[in-house]
Amino acid sequence: MGLIIGLVFVGVFTLIALPLVAMGPSSSAKQALATLDSAIKVDRRDLLPQKLNVRKNELLSSIPWLNQKLLKFELTPYLRRTLSQADLDWSAGRLLLICAGGFVIPTYALLETTSNSLLAFATGTVLGILPYGWVLFKRHRRFSAFEKNLPEALDLMVSGLRAGHSLLAAMALVARECPQPVSGEFKICFEEQNYGLEMKAALESLITRVPLQDLKITTTAINIQKESGGNLAEVLDKTAYVIRERFRLKRQIMVHTAQGRLTGLILTLLPIVLGVGIYFIDPGMISILWTHPVGIKLMWAAAGLIVIGGFVIHKIVDIDV
Question: To bridge 102 with a disulfide, which of 38, 49, 128, 235 should be the other Cys (CB 3.0-4.6 Å)?
Fold first, then answer.
């Protein structure tokens, strides 16, 4: 009986399989086999990982030869960081070219018109420094705005933490809700942590971009809490209170030192304004200061004393909190 069943199975299998083998593969099967065959025959070198340049290439100037020169100087990282802190899209080469143009063009024009080298170089120096001074002004104003809005950002983080969010989610909340420049800097810190950077390294990068004492207090409090534990919401709440008290104390100091700062400004500008006024009234009387050897020495001495006096007054009224 078993032999009969086996013979029947072999016969049925032969009747079904032999026609299929004779017909060969269908067109769709041939296409699939061709695709698989082409994928298998890919050169092994194509399967190897390509060499990629993952270094961050930053353009310091749109002029190629100037960009190569600037990459060799240690000054360019400082200028690039300062421009970034001022929230300007300038390159370091552009700033240097503007400063150079501000020095060369007025100096050459005054040398051609007045033949007074001292006046020409002094005017060129002042005008050449003005672009960099404007960058520092923009940087200071941005830092002041960050310092003013930091306590509100910490209050928002405290609210998020007490609502059950993590520190990373609280930073994302600050990045969405707070005004610039606080939201932009915290957004960068949040994205760095999302890309795998440790919390401590991301906070250090934040301090590098915004080197403010209040922010250093905040990051130090967060790092201490992560190492020793505790209620982070309470820590940030007290940190915000300390920052507000420091801000209030700095405002009081500015009020009490306003007279000294105004005195220093007047004593610094008075000789310059008086000299310019006398030059327009009677140029022959004051021109002895840059035509006579004794007058030139007196001008250098007066300039040095003005600088020293301004520096001393600045140190007196500049009280660190």
Answer: 128
